[in-house]
Write a structure and sequence with these properties.
alpha/beta; 558 residues; 15 strands
Length: 558
């Protein structure tokens, strides 16, 4: 792809930016900053995805510019390998480093939220001119950072930062742009820049003259490169244009799924599971990139947030039975899970304006326990059958493993997770038919015509999405923060709707019990942050795997 073009009387230069993948500190929910740590396997996958997207679009580069940090250089190398351009010159500079997080470096974000409050920590992280507390010589990583040989060529000791705001970061990165990158662009060089989100926020603020308030809202996804097209005066003609379409990403997913990424660390047993991980991650990146706060210079204001929680384990979950609309209480494990979810939310200092849940006891009790832990028991709460679990029809009360033995794992998986295939209907002679139909909790709905005997996820969506639009969206328009405690499939229906997942993608999604996840919305109620769990990545992965294994056949004893 040509780095310069003549169009409408101006010269157009093209620069591609790609955020490096997740590193060890990021996965540990710690601030990395200038601490040097490697990419994790997911980060390497994200870098590979970025390179694959660039190759698909035909990008060729003359040189790449990165920071001196290992994670960024490793990401750049993976991108170039995917592009088949490992030979091009690579320029490393501390001026493209991540933000120096000072005293916050390598400290756990959730613990910092508890100590200082989430608002203060986010101010240190996202604001333009408010820097975190300085790193003092007694900090556990002070000597390790300041004496790291990667800084042998700079900065000088008298310039070595102890902390930085975004404004301070720009004071080192923008001169590099003007003195090193712009002259190369004038020479016709095709340039790729690989660095951190904070470094890119500085460039974006500078190039697009973004206000201090708006730059605080900018989120940059992993794994999706973006492009700036500049006129002859190096002013943006196109700003932050992401290199991603659904069709392109799907092809990238297929190609990457045949590679060996993830296998060494996650020890994936099947290509199907590998494909699932890649697909979910890439879909997350695509949706986030589409809804990023800045796309083609269209800045979207944020303000509303929803925390979703699947109820804690019910007694039938512990027995591995299909539950559906049958009303069962929480088990002891489920109560502990609900309390743990509440404690996690309390540590983040989130205040809710109202809460929504189903009419089923296991969801309502989970909500009560969470609200008690966060000290917000008096907020308005709303219950509706439209947030119920999907109706499992004749499977209700059956053991999942025994059902898999009888019908086969594939058939049971289709009943559990497919989009438009419902289980066999519950007939009047079913042992739980009258208990469900005659339950007084349904006196206000559904009507006799609406009352299901079985539901697919598509059927479930037909009742949950109208409720979302009619009752929850109006509150989000007011900037409210909302808690929704519901069920595996009513929440899967909402995730599919919000992130525009296709039926194949949603089939692979398994939601663990009582692990909260977040959506944040812009002023147009499009997600800025999608499906972000308030828990470490490894815990979520293991919990999802346990849910997926519920309907597998019992291993035969030898």
């Amino acid at each position: 792809m040509d780095p310069t073009k003549e169009s409408c009387g101006y010269t157009k230069y093209i620069v591609v930016f790609s955020r490096s993948g997740r590193c060890l500190s990021t996965v540990e929910k710690k601030f990395p900053g200038w601490f040097d740590c490697p990419l994790v396997e997911q980060g390497r996958l994200e870098a590979a995805s970025s390179g694959a997207l660039l190759r698909k679009e035909g990008y060729q580069f003359d040189e790449v510019h990165t920071s001196v940090l290992t994670r960024v250089n490793e990401g750049a190398d993976i991108i170039l390998k995917e592009l088949g351009q490992k030979h091009i010159p690579k320029y490393k500079t501390w001026r493209l480093n991540d933000l120096h997080y000072g005293d916050l470096t390598r400290k756990n974000k959730l613990e910092l939220y508890a100590q200082y409050g989430e608002k203060q920590v986010q101010l240190w992280k996202q604001s333009y001119d408010v820097a975190p507390p300085p790193m003092t010589p007694d900090h556990p990583h002070y000597e390790e950072i300041i004496n790291n040989p990667i800084f042998a060529n700079g900065p000088p000791k008298d310039e070595f930062p102890k902390f930085e705001s975004l404004k301070m970061l720009m004071e080192r990165s923008i001169p590099y742009w003007e003195n090193d990158i712009v002259p190369k662009l004038k020479q016709g060089k095709r340039i790729l820049i690989v660095s951190s989100a904070q470094c890119f926020r500085g460039f974006i603020k500078y190039l697009d003259h973004i206000s201090e308030e708006r730059i605080e809202r900018l989120k940059i996804p992993y794994g999706i490169p973006f492009v700036y097209e500049l006129d002859k005066n190096f002013r943006p003609v196109v700003s932050m244009k992401f290199i991603a379409t659904d069709a392109v990403v799907y092809e990238v997913q297929k190609r990457l799924s045949s590679r060996g990424y993830f296998e060494s660390t996650l020890k994936l047993k099947t290509a199907t599971l590998l494909k699932k991980v890649i697909k979910l991650h890439a879909n997350y990146c695509v949706n986030l990139s589409k809804r990023c706060a800045f796309h083609s210079r269209n800045v979207k204001e944020g303000g509303s947030k929803v925390i979703f929680v699947r109820h804690g384990a019910g007694e039938w979950n512990d027995k591995n039975l299909f539950t559906g609309w049958y009303d069962v209480p929480l088990s002891d494990r489920g109560r502990r899970e609900a309390i743990g979810a509440g404690q996690k939310l309390h540590s983040l200092g989130i205040h809710f304006d109202e809460a929504y849940t189903s009419v089923l006891t296991r969801a309502q009790l989970t909500l009560e326990l969470i609200l008690k832990e966060v000290g917000q028991e008096n907020i308005p709460t709303f219950t509706t059958w439209r947030l119920n679990e999907r109706h499992y029809g004749s499977l209700t009360g059956l053991n999942k493993q025994e059902t898999a033995e009888k019908y086969g794992e594939q058939q049971v998986q289709i009943w559990r997770r497919s989009y438009d295939i419902a289980p066999p209907p519950m007939e009047p002679d079913h042992p739980y038919y009258k208990k469900i139909r005659d339950d007084p909790r349904y006196k206000d709905g559904p009507s006799t015509d609406e009352f299901p005997d079985s539901e697919s996820l598509k059927d479930t969506s037909h009742r949950t999405i109208p409720y979302w639009r009619s009752y929850i969206i109006p509150k989000l328009r007011k900037g409210h923060t909302i808690l929704v405690v519901a069920h595996q499939n009513s929440l899967r229906a909402l995730v599919k709707y919000l992130d525009k997942l296709d039926p194949e993608q949603i089939m692979d999604l398994n939601l663990p019990t009582a692990l909260p996840f977040v959506y944040e919305f812009d002023k147009h109620l499009q997600p800025i942050i999608s499906f972000k769990f308030i828990e470490d990545e490894e815990t979520v992965k293991q919990a999802m795997a346990r849910v997926a294994a519920e309907s597998k056949k019992k291993k035969k004893e030898e």
